Amino acid sequence: MFIPRTSLAAAHAHLLRHATPASPSILVLAAPTPDALCASRILTHILKHDFLPHLILPVAGYRDLEVINQKQIKGNETLRFVICIGLGGLFDIAEFLGWDEEDPAGQERPEVWVIDARRPWNLGNVFGGGGRVEGGQDGLGGFGGVKCWDDGDIEVELGREGEAYKALEGMPEVSDEEESDEDDDLEDEEEEVVDLLGEESKGRKRKSSEDEEEDAGRSRRRRLEGEEHETSPEPLPRRGLLSTSSGRYPSSPPLDTHPSSPTPSLPPPMPSQRTLRRKLRRLRHKHQATIAHYYSTGTSYSSPASSLLYSLASDLSREDPDLLWLALVGCSSTELYGHQPPPTIERSTFNILRDEVRRLNPPPPGAAGTSTTTSIDTPRGPDDRSIRISPEFRFLLIRHWSLYDSMLHSPHLIPRLNLFSPSGIKRLHKLLAKMGISLTQCRQSYTHMDMQLKRTLREKVEGVGRLYGLEGVVREGYVRSWGWKAVLSAGDVGAILGALLEGGGTLPEVEEAGSVEREDDEQQRNWNRASDALENIDLLLAAIPGTLTLARATMRVATGLIQKGQIKTLNSFRFAVVRDGPDLGYFLNPGALQRLAMWLGEAIYEEERQGGRRRHLPLVLAVLNGARGVFLCEEEEEEEIVLEEGRAKNRFGIAFQEVAASTNARVRVDSFEASVIEVRQEDLIGFFEELSRRVVLGG
Fold it and tell me: Which InterPro entries match (predicted)?
């Protein structure tokens, strides 16, 4: 089932009606991403306001979810709601939790809410209970089942898929084996008919000529008798309006032996069971093809979870600057990992949040208002906690190190200037020279740069940047002040949270990298540090050096792979393998590996595009975890995407999962991301060979 966006307030009323304040009856499961973290914090504020105790747990993959199911969900009689944030959209969560079978104890199962931006939806979650929620005291139907939060794409885009799924649910099972058995029976019947017809034809040939003449004589006599009968006159009926046989009652009308009106047609014969089964089978195949096409179009992303949770707070009239800031950080962080929603949804969300910033943070009396030309880096006072709209450079953490390093490590500039190569570094130096900024100035800390240079930086960057294809390098963003302590943009905070969730720029110990239990403990610590940093500006500022360390490590590894020619090309994809190096430990985290693959993929794509190449291959990046003997593989696809109603879809990730399921190589699909898997060290070559044999690219 799914909950439309207009019914979020009804969902909250449904939660209040069935949750119990006496014990923790709400379990919140969140993916380790900045967006899911911000969304869970918004939900925490709402639940605390309602005095509802709850438990929040980070869930990195299917193994973590299975452990939580065994320890926290099964047999928990007080649990009423399981709220999944950033997970649960791609797989049948009821089947995964074992709810497709009846509970032998007869215990009432909790209700599951799925708030996930990943697409495609698992149609069993969306339409399994009947589709859109209806009825009930709160308009949300009865209690229980799986209910997905719809940001609008289910009702608008999944009409055909919903009809196909519901039709398949109501159809009886008809296997193809029955059709083959019916065809065999039909062939046997046809052979029997042919044999019978053959015997009759042989009998006719044995007729004598005398019998034929006798039959001909009989037929001539019948024709003559028929002609005499047809030409004999019939008695005329009596004329008059009323003719009676007894003089009192009307006589019956004469029988018309040649009626002028046609006789009523007989009803058509009922189709045979075999015909009905064939029609049912064709209809089933049609609906199955519709659903298969939906799943095969590729993976994509929709509205961030933080924007949906802020919509709930707004519907409840509980919005405030703190919750708004969480939504801004969550939505801004999606660009770090390439999880942006379609342009139409992104613009709509941005406009709504911009209006909220202006409404909740009006300028003080006598203030000049919001600046639209220069970045806002000066707070209004020691107690200033306001959020303001400000033009933001798409440079990484520009306020916290030098302008040169910020541009050198910018995900927006790296592919466009090809900064992984020496020629790209020269282009960056020429760009700075044309802007009139010396290397000495731009390598200073940004806070100590000349104020006049800061005021004119936007004009210089936009003017000279057009010569290098840097359109959109400055865009409208959001900044928040914490008194005199700091001024941070929403994008900066998203980058810091992402680094904290990926380890905070600290290399794991060798024994920790080889133990699954230690990895779980490390994941919980990373989540706690990131969650605390959202509420404490001192912890947030203390995490900036680790964020810069992780950015430098990403730059070093990517530069080494490109300059040493370690990216190999096969028929249908490229691949690179990182087996050793001082920075290897940073990328044993799926989030850090995903960011490294995105930087590499965008750089290769932009270089080939500028060179006039039309076909661009996906990139598969593998990093060795020597302590566990596995490769963590990440797939990144830049060019082979399908733009369907403005939604960028990754088709190669689907083939990535299919090969992982069909190959003999020992692989483990543990991440909720379709593009991340683990492969045993000795099976990596076989996995690449099987993936190469797949025809996954067109043209």
Answer: CDC45
Is residue 609 domain-shared with residue 519, that is, in the same domain? no
Sign of CA dihedral 643, 645, 648, 650: negative
Contact 499, 547 (CB under 8 A): yes
Tell me which residue range forms the domain holding 118: 2-152
Give the pLDDT of residue 675: 80
Query: Nearest CA to 110 among 92, 119, 98?
Result: 98
State which residues of the chain have pLDDT below 70.
100-106, 135-136, 174-267, 364-376, 508-519, 638-657, 660-661, 663-665, 694-699
Alpha carbon 161 to chain centroid, angstroms: 15
Q: Tell me, what's the pLDDT at 266?
A: 62
CA distances from 403 to 395, 443, 445, 545, 634 (A): 8, 6, 7, 16, 31
CATH number at residue 18: 3.40.50.2300
pLDDT for res 217: 52
Q: How far is Cα 126 from Cα 169, in angstroms, rounded to an integer? A: 13
536 plus 615 within the same structural domain: no
Q: Tell me, what's the pLDDT at 250? A: 37
Residues 502 and 599 in one domain: no
Of the residues 523, 548, 573, which one is the last residue of a structural domain?
Answer: 548
Q: For 557-603, what is each residue's pLDDT tens digit?
A: 999 999 898 998 887 888 999 999 999 999 998 889 999 999 998 88
First and final CA of the chain: distance in angstroms?
A: 39
Q: What CA dihedral angle connects 501, 503, 504 and 507, to 10 degrees?
A: -170
Task: Say if residue 540 is in the same domain as residue 564.
Answer: no
* Contact between 399 and 481 (Cβ < 8 Å): no
Say which DSSP state 612 is in.
T
Peptide bond into 120 cis (omega under 30): yes
